[in-house]
Design goal:
This protein is an alpha+beta fold. The protein is 21% helix and 41% strand.
Length: 135
Amino acid sequence: MDLGAVMQAVADRIDTIADLRVHAYPPDVIQPPAAVVTYPGTLTYDATYGRGMDRIPDLTVVLLVGKVSDRASRDMITQWAKGSGATSIKAVVESGTYTAFDTVRVTEVTFDIISVAGVEHLAATFTLDIAGSGA
């Protein structure tokens, strides 16, 4: 798999969700609400015989919403964290048709507070398990 192509394909799919700025890699400047496809911790080669499959078990997508103290931030992040629906990161990513890889599964979402330019923002980090041809 081509890591750059994988990250771009995931970003392009998430970009179908309205009112969300999407970055296919970590940008210098970010303005919430935004989604950032970040670099994985691991890319495993040769998961099957003869370069049949490579795997990225931990590609992450970080969504920054707004101030932690804003009710609107809570309402927005809960829409993205739902397991189904048009605004669900899980549903949107898993329903895509991709050429950069064969399968994708959103395995979890964790919540945190991330400081950007001195402002604490509510954040959700989605973990994706991706597999595709090693050729």
